[in-house]
Amino acid sequence: MGNSDRREFIKRAAALLTLAGGGRANSADEPMHESPRTDVDYRRIATEEAFITRELAQQYDRLLRDGLSDDAGFNAMWRGIGSNERFRSGLIDVGEGRIRDMDAAGISLQLLLLTTPGVQVFEAGLATGLARATNDELTAAVSRHPQRFAGLAVIAPQDPPAAARELERAVRTLDLKGAVINSHTFGEYLDEPKYWAIFEAAEALDAPIYIHPRPPPAPMIEPYLRRGLSGPLGGFSAEVYLHILAIITAGVFDRFPRLKIVIGHLGEGVPYLMYRLDYMQHHAEVPGLRGKAQPTRLKRKISEYIRENIYVTTSGMAWEPAIKFAQEVIGADHVLYAMDYPYQYDVAEVVTTDNLSISDYDKKLLYQLNAERLFSLMGT
Ligand code: MN
Question: Is there a contact between 259 and 209 (Cβ–Cβ < 8 Å)?
């Protein structure tokens, strides 16, 4: 290709990108750059960004080293993550190194979540104490860089009343923005009424609960583990799918209609199945196969709870067709950007997200406005 041909080719490619991206492309004379644009009219807020305290990492190490955990999913996961230097140091650093990575990726603000499985592998007393200590440390990290970090509280569902109190302290006193629950707690899910004190507090505080995956519990994990599928290739999605369907069909949103639940990975397939969920709620021939979801037990269609009470983030899913589908079926005001730092730190994915062929306003909702509203980040 000669020089003028090359210029013509670049110009055409840029024009095509403008069409595809619905926004500005690089000028024809510039090479395509891989770092995200800075001249955008949104700030990028990433809403599922993992961290761990040094103390908690050591507690995890101790569980493994002393053979204290019979949670095969946790053991397999932390053996991998805890010994991976990039992940380990990336999780622990809530200061300069993390901010350098955010700057390189054009991320203005990270919403920090204690990494999975949080304190949900410890007995209730220890877990409750660790939750408090972790929230205090998180708050200190946020207050060192208030323009760059906000945080979700960690709570210990093992002791539901204490978890509700800690959520209240975290939101009212520490200015944390909600809470993360790393899915099951010793094989139990939040659809069981003994946990509903947490939902009651969350609704009263208008504090969203982020249900983040972890590997499935003992009764469920064996077939996944045997195949190496207990994490992102299977177990994570199965776990969150079960959790969210359990919450919906137990009537949690009838009891707490203003409760907000957030899930990552664009909803772990749930939005894609909404039609079938509604159909089977009303038509399943065999009652035993539709759980508690009979129309007489729930006030609304399953899809209505998903649209009203559930928010999804794009963590790990920088994929245009899926993002557009989620925006279409649950609403552009319920889909938020997330990166899943440090696990999926990939600057090219920010460029992909910048170039989505959606309206400028929907892009601003995705990157900024939804997060500001849902997590009360307006002042940060
Ligand atoms: Mn994550």
Answer: yes
